[in-house]
Amino acid sequence: MKKVFIFDTTLRDGEQTPRVTLEPQEKLRIAKQLEEMGVDIIEAGFPIASPGDVEAVTIISKEIKNSIVCGLARSVKKDIDIAWSALQYAKRPRIHVFIATSDIHMKYKLRKTKEEVLMQAVEAVKYAKSLCEDIEFSAEDATRSDPEFLREVFLRVIEAGATVINVPDTVGYCVPSEFGNLIAQIRNYIPEEIILSVHCHNDLGLATANSLIGVLNGANQVEVAVNGLGERAGNAAIEEVVMAIKTRKDIFNAYTDIKTEHIMNLSRLVSGLTGIPVQPNKAIVGINAFAHEAGIHQDGILKERSTYEIMNPKDIGLDSSEIVLGKHSGRHALNERLKQLGYVLSEEELTKVFEKFKILADRKREILDRDLISLLEEKPVELPVYRLVNMEVITKINNSSYAKVDIEKAEERFHGESDGDGPIEALFNAIENAINMHFDLIDFSLKSVTMGKDALGEALVKLKKDGEVYSGRGTSKNILEASVIAYINAINRALA
Ligand code: KIV
Ligand code: ZN
Questions:
Q1: ∠ CA 386-387-392, rounded to 5°
Q2: Ligand 1 first shell, C-beta below 6 A
Q3: Domain limits at 40?
Q4: SS3 label, residue 11
Q5: pLDDT (0 to 100) of residue 383
Q6: pTM given for the model
Q7: Are residues 396 and 418 in the same domain?
Q8: Can you tell me which atom of ligand 1 is nearest the CA of 230?
Q9: For residue 166, which atom of ligand 1 is closest to its CA?
Q10: Residue 397: what pLDDT?
């Protein structure tokens, strides 16, 4: 079986995720987990980009002993010098130099001829090689480059000392069949001892597929990022690539040295430090990836896990899969959960509870243990649905605002007041004061959905509570009211 080297670029391309920045100490925390997990190469940053990156690459170089520590540099001396100034402390340093090779990039971005680009690449690799043994060369926008020119560049930089050749699908343009062909071609003309790497972006949602077809066609290094972070739509996700290779050994005839049980913790750490939540249905690390809602699936899983699971949740560091009790659940799953709660029911009793459960499940997104206990004890299940009754807001020119809200749940009224930096913040604070709860607002947007002065405004709100994200939507001609409705709707979802 062939070994596939895992090159993690969370700390470099991953940090290029729009609106993400990581402090050097945060990067070090992630780097230590990557090392612990068995990542072969950690791309720690792009030192020329900022003093913070120089610091991060320096401290990571000093601390990391098992993984190769890599720093990115354009094919220019000053980038290579600054990258080396940080990497020199690493036990196993690698300089990663790149230059664009596609006609589009050379003409419009670099404003250079093919000959000039070729010379620059060769000079840069030679210079980097005079400082460091391990040199990776990337042909930026390789997949839109003239294949003949690409061949010439790769062969010349190998002659100049590059030990790893990376093929980035920089703009995520390739489809798997053509990417596979390109990698097979390159593997054919480069020497066997040269590591052939793929670096795929996800603009068409194909980053993982392209990386894997790359492996099938001769690549032995894959560049990835945790949770698929990266420039624009991101890079191939480490968890997807690694678990695909592990799960489908029969296809890949390959392995990685990743200790996959660390995947979930790493995903959570990166999501927490970057502030980028993981979508619930994200492959491998989404909260739904091992959760089963449909009755038929739950029944299958309870009888034999492999009926609906191709991976063992323990392999990524989860205790077990999850059976979510909701409107699609069946008797088998309900009975199992009741048994876990200590209730052993006769068939007749179960039938009765199941009927009540189904009625409740139509009104409530997820049935929790406390709801089941209420059903069994014949108590009404409380549905915490808040509704806006009234709102008032005073806002001044300097943005200082004061808001009052009245909201209602069942027959109960709640009143809250608050100031805030602007009317929206004051209103959202007032709602939280009214119900005495706090949520983190992670996204808020407003747009008009109809035309004219009396246009209808639509507000979208995303809140975070206990690590979970809830969204709410509100529409009204009054944009403040639309915002408040959206906020309350999100809260209702969080409490349901
Ligand atoms: O996407 C890309 O081309 C890159 C290179 C710098 C490797 O990130
Ligand atoms: Zn990239």
A1: 120
A2: 13, 98, 138, 140, 166, 168, 170, 199, 201
A3: 2-274
A4: coil
A5: 66
A6: 0.79
A7: yes
A8: 8
A9: 7
A10: 81
